[in-house]
Amino acid sequence: MLEWNQSLSTGIFEIDEQHKELFSRVNRLLAGMDENRDSDQTRELFLFLDQYVVRHFGDEERYIARLEMRGYGEAEEHRSQHRAFTRDFNAYKADLTGSAGDALLLAEFRKFITNWWILHITKTDRVLGAFMKENIPFIS
């Protein structure tokens, strides 16, 4: 389960709020899958996450584009992480929506999605947030 705490804060309100919403929806998806809820609900939650992740990554990447001109050297790595998550998430989605509660696959997905978000936020998004606050004065 993904749990938000202050150590995950980027210091950028919009990004932090999006992360909280992502955590909430990922937790709903995992809970539903644990309870073997119908596949329609699972597909709906995957669809929401598909759309929300695109929006979230798009918002971050708009900030990244602005910051590249100010020396943000992590831009391509950050984008690369987004692409890798999208690729891997889509592969899991295809496997999980086509399987009837494969416990091993679900455990693997749970580990992937929780570890990815925690590591990405703590190692990449927090760096982005700090750089934004230093280089775009009105951001908070």
Would you mind describing this structure in some detail?
The chain contains four helices and no strands. It has helices spanning 13-34, 39-68, 75-97, 103-135. The two termini are 28 Å apart. It is 77% helix and 0% strand. It has one domain (6-135): Hemerythrin-like (Four Helix Bundle (Hemerythrin (Met), subunit A), Up-down Bundle), CATH 1.20.120. The chain is mainly alpha-helical.
What is this structure's SSE topology?
Layout (H helix, E strand, L loop, with lengths): L12 H22 L4 H30 L6 H23 L5 H33 L5
Helix pairs in contact: 1-2, 2-3, 3-4
Percent in helix: over 70%
Question: Alpha-carbon distance between the termini?
Answer: 28 Å
Described by strand count, sense and barrel closure, the largest sheet is:
none
Low-confidence regions: none
Give a concise summary:
With 140 residues, the chain is mainly alpha-helical. It has helices at residues 13-34, 39-68, 75-97, 103-135. Helix 2 (39-68) runs antiparallel to helix 3 (75-97).
